[in-house]
Amino acid sequence: MAIERIAVVGAGAWGSALANAAARAGCSVTLIARAAADALQSTRENPRLPGVRLDERIAVTARIAAAGEADAVLLAVPAQALRAAAGALAAVIRPGTPAIACAKGIERGTRQFMTEVIAESAPAAVPAILSGPSFAADVARGLPTAVTLAARDRKTAEALARALGSATFRPYHATDVRGVEIGGAAKNVLAIAAGIVAGRGLGPSAAAALTTRGFAELLRFGKAFGARAETLTGLSGLGDLILTCASPQSRNFSFGVAIGKGERNAPDKLAEGAFTAAVLVYMALEKQIDVPVAAAVAAVLDHKISVDAAIEALLTRPLRAE
User: Do residues 31 and 59 touch, judged by C-beta distance below 8 A?
Assistant: First the structure.
């Protein structure tokens, strides 16, 4: 499979960063922006990535039809906007073209994972998923980053990884699509919990305990939905959890910090965990999976319990073997 032409749908920070990464890998790249395409083409700078220039080789357009000329499409839009983006793509994409979800979440209304949304909304496409420990600013600047890129077909995953890989952006290919999806979605919820701990000033020992026990929840949830253990302990699971549970660059962590400090503003739409928490807990309950940290986050976000009450409930759970 020859993959030389890449279309990136979504010109936010992550879409612009991935466009830069694909251009560095030697691909012919078209960045599809819904708004301000002319300004981005002219200035070559995304306001969400100050100080980072868009690679001169990247073409910018507002035309979704441009995706029909690509060998693969990166859907760099938020999880809850993926269905609309994939639906628009369906009218122009060539049959058999890989469509790669680059969001980390679960669709709230349907409780579908990202590749399921693509399969339903753009049935001619081949769904894939890209996830892992990566901040847009790092990727855009060309700082060393490793991620996981998964597709059901091994050869497709390998071809996509080869096409996007470079000296500074290293995609590891995989076929465990569900594991990669779950790692990215679940860690965002846990990053909010870690942010709450930081915002409340509970200290690094509490943060380490929260991250470790949260990872145990991620493993239980993932295995129940068919994920492989080696995927969950890899880049798209444990690796991403470590990154986002300790850095203010993470929107989910920063949102949690704000909650911990008593600031109850509406979440940034890119704090994906805020929209994933409730549905993840619902899915866990259906399979009788114990996810106390995620459940506490969901309850706090839904104003069912205070932050202090949630922390007390976690600390007073019955003692048991690890």
Answer: yes
